């Protein structure tokens, strides 16, 4: 058996070529690197900011109650409240204040009426 050894020649390992990014590649890497920062900013904008502060004093109610009688509708109730306001606006405010799904009311139902429409 014969073995040949070269003496004096250094063994060179194959060098890995250095990674070269193009302009487009650098833009992609930069965009990917900035995604966590952008997500944090969006989360702060949605959930951060100032929180609502509850006060201990109760506000004065700006409405009164009316009980619906048999044969009455929201139109008849609203038209009997204020002559200066448009009846449609009064009905819309009553529906919003009472969170009614429709404009239908039932006899005996209590409705909150904004005080600005009272006589």
Automatic annotation (TrEMBL):
The entry's keywords: Membrane, Transmembrane, Transmembrane helix
Positions of the LysM domain: 64-113
Pfam family, one: LysM
SMART domains: LysM (SM00257)
Keyword flag Transmembrane: yes
Transmembrane regions: 25-47
Cited InterPro entries: LysM, LysM_dom_sf
Top-rank lineage group of the source organism: Bacteria
Name of the protein in its database record: LysM domain-containing protein
